[in-house]
Amino acid sequence: METGTPDFVPAVVPARPGPGPTPRLADGLAYGGDYNPEQFPRDVWDEDVRLMREAGVNLVTLGVFAWGTVETADGERDWTWMDEAVDLLERNGIGIDLATPTAAPPQWLLTAHPEIAPVLADGYREPAGGRNAWCPASLLYRRHALRQVESLAERYGRHPSVRLWHVGNELGGGNARCHCERSAAAFREWLARRHGSLEAVNAAWGTEQWGHRYGRWEEVMPPLGRHGAPNPALFLDYERYSSDALLSHYLAEKEVIERHSDVPVTTNLMVGAGAQVVDYASWAPHTAVAANDHYTSVDDPLREQDLAFSGDRMRGMAADRRPWLLMESSTGGPSWQRRNRAKDPGEILRHSLGHVARGADGVMFFQWRASTSGAEQFHSAMLPHTGTRSRVWKEVVELGARLKSLAEIRGTRVEAAKAAIVVDDPAGWALRHGLKPHRDLSYGRELRAWHRALWDRQVLCDVVPPDRDLDGYDLVIVPNLLVVDRAAADRLSSVPERGGTLLVTYLSGICEADSKVITGGFPGAFRDVLGAWSDEFYPLQEGEAVELDDGTAVTDWTERVHLDGAEAVVRYASSSLADGPAVTRRAVGGGAAWYVSAPLAAESADRIAARLIADAGLERAAEAEPGLEAVRRTGPGRSYLFLLNHDDTDRTVAAEGHDLLSGDRVGPETTVPAGGVRVLREPVRQPGHHAPDHIEDRP
Ligand code: GLA
Fold this sequence. Notes:
Blueprint: E1 30-35, H1 42-55, E2 59-62, E3 71-73, E4 76-77, H2 80-91, E5 95-99, H3 107-112, H4 139-156, E6 162-166, H5 181-195, H6 198-205, H7 232-260, E7 265-266, E8 268-269, H8 280-283, E9 291-293, H9 303-317, E10 324-328, H10 347-357, E11 360-365, H11 391-405, E12 413-414, E13 419-422, H12 425-432, H13 443-455, E14 461-464, E15 475-478, H14 486-493, E16 501-505, H15 527-530, E17 532-537, E18 545-547, E19 553-555, E20 559-563, E21 567-571, E22 581-588, E23 591-596, H16 602-616, E24 628-635, E25 638-645, E26 651-654, E27 657-659, E28 665-666, E29 669-672, E30 677-681
Parallel strand pairs: 1-2, 1-11, 2-5, 5-6, 6-7, 8-9, 9-10, 10-11, 13-14, 13-15, 15-16, 16-23
Antiparallel strand pairs: 3-4, 12-24, 17-20, 18-19, 21-22, 22-23, 24-25, 25-30, 26-29, 27-28, 27-30
This protein binds alpha-D-galactopyranose.
């Protein structure tokens, strides 16, 4: 049984490192996917590299689940296959994103030490068999993992083909919360560092309620069981601890790698709408290039907007809008959705370039060759089971050629957005835990709703954490930011004073960072700037709707709002709230502060968004109906307009330039075919229009 003090857990995330230069992963945009040659006989490998070259692949993720195939028994390593794969890739000029294999501990380790597996809230210890089946507080796991990382880094850390390090895989996917005794001890240590003393924990969590005061540290446990009424502050701190515990694992691997290698280090995040498994905004600054795994969902009618949201959030968490890397995506159905449908013709290109439009400097897939066996045998791949006569393969080859024609875009940055949506994982976690007035609200829904209203109008926004400097934004939208610290609330509240527009939605600014309700009228943190407050919540039952006087109706949430300096823009028109304000606006100096007290129907949000855009003087990248996505990337003296047509009819917009994809010169209008994409190198607009950007490089 393992013992030891989990003294590795950082109290809070260490100071953000400076951005550093952007790594150069390939000559142009990076292109490739996860490559698992160990799953196939050796003669297949030659075909692999031949086809990779045919498709223009220049970067592959190698070894991501290859712990057990290298360290075959405790301390016994056989590198033969990996040496051969590395050589083969080098001979063929294909760069390597070398993964540490720590997501999948070998069977011998799991069998000898089943106690490294994480424990669920109900006390059930996950048996071996999946991935990420390890407890972040297990020192034994960590020792084994770092030992394997060290031998990998010693062996290949200076290999010329290794362009990037990929730590583990989707850290937190499966093991983000562990409830074992070891984790409990680590959590207590984390709490002691965050709060200073047990007394301070009691005060922050309000443990006098139900007489739950802690007298000794040993009494503090992770949120266990299914009793349904946990202290929300305990929950929130446990989620924060869990994020930091995994981050400390990432940092430990990174430190070992950096002892043997100068190659930049990253890990693949899973960034979407809603609260993530860990607080990625605190992780991204520790990566040389932020990397994202994004999969579209067939059952999402606006999946391209979800993709855009993810890209805007990646850019929002990477310092200075620097380029990021799409580490995983799919050429068709993944295998973990309920119905895993293939992509429609053209979607591979359009979705991939959607990521590039929003700042990705590379497009990678899970995975290169489809697995014939194992859990993921029906997952799509760049080279599907059907092989080179498949449509997917043809589109993969076409994508490779198109990315090559976009090589000059590498290192440019997405134009500076003037609008921002504030997103915060702890706020999202807080929304779903404890006895809230409405238990089924989804954090992602409100975030997506406001993003969609801007996306439909080709208005770019960054999706940013609340601690970000907001000075460059003329419009700041704050959806469902249930918990907020004082400093962030002050920064947000100062937006209107300097002439900007602030929009705050229901269930924002209700609680302080430690989950304590701010009294005196909701939303306590923002009521002064909003000039409006509410005193009673009326969440709606399933199927219930309340009308508004703009002709729309709302579901799920309403509240009784009082004006205190603001005017009502939209009023409730039914229920006991009828005639009361639903949406308010307060003019503040040159700016304005809006409060939206209910989840608006798209039509209603659209009307408000149009006014916000006009009031804040936001520019549209193109004037088009919804469905035509338009984004610019710029560099010194250069400007590229991405036009993505997600609609099934051709679209014509005012735009001119040289289409890097087709080679056509177009303008003053251009037609983007149904489902098609254009990337125009535009004549550079008048000086000062785009702030010149720097292309940072790392040789
Ligand atoms: C995740 C993992 C990959 C693979 C894909 C399948 O993103 O990182 O290893 O399992 O899912 O979609």
